[in-house]
Amino acid sequence: MRGAGTIKAVEEQEAFGKIQTYYIITMALNGAQIMIPTHQTAQSNIRRITDIAELQNILHIFQHGQPHTLLPWRERYKQNTAKVKSGTLQNCAEVVRDLRHMQKEKPLNTSEKQMLAHAHTFLLNELVLIPGITENELNSFS
């Protein structure tokens, strides 16, 4: 998972002796450019930015969903890692919600602090790209 990016171009280039079509994507977080073959979009988890209607659902889950904190640390970490790696905005919002809830009860260990920071950065980087998002909606996740 690399985070949100914008397709800046579609180019044909020669690779392995044949012409292939690539998406040229600029990453929002660090401005890095990556090239992904267009025929491999399914395997690379490329998806459209979340729309404003789905954002409302995610916001509701973030604010009103029940945190999943009863699992033992190892199981919870494994589950949260899978959610973050999925690359979906909803899963990252759930990880941020759950870890913040736990943080209020007791200090997080180093691994969970890093996961919280990573998931929160991923979340905010995509949120700022959603057309029509308001400042209040964006601040709800901060």
Q: Care to give the gist of this entry?
A:
This protein is of the alpha+beta class. 48% of the residues lie in helices and 18% in strands.
Alpha-beta content class: alpha+beta
Strand order of the largest sheet: 1-2-3
Largest sheet, strands/sense/barrel: 3 strands, antiparallel
How far apart the termini lie comes to: 21 Å
What is the CATH class name of the largest domain?
Mainly Alpha
CATH fold topology of the largest domain: Methane Monooxygenase Hydroxylase, Chain G, domain 1
What gross morphology would you assign? globular
Whole-number average pLDDT? 88
Oligomer: single chain
Radius of gyration over C-alpha positions, nearest whole angstrom:
17 Å
Poorly predicted ranges: none
> How much strand content do the residues show?
15-25%
CATH homologous superfamily label of the largest domain: CarD-like, C-terminal domain
Q: How many beta-strand segments?
A: 3
Amount of helix = 40-55%
Work out the count of structural domains.
Answer: 2
Helical run tally: 5
Protein name: Transcription factor YdeB
InterPro entries: CarD-like/TRCF_RID, CarD-like/TRCF_RID_sf, CarD-like_C, CarD-like_regulator, CarD_C
Organism: Caryophanon tenue
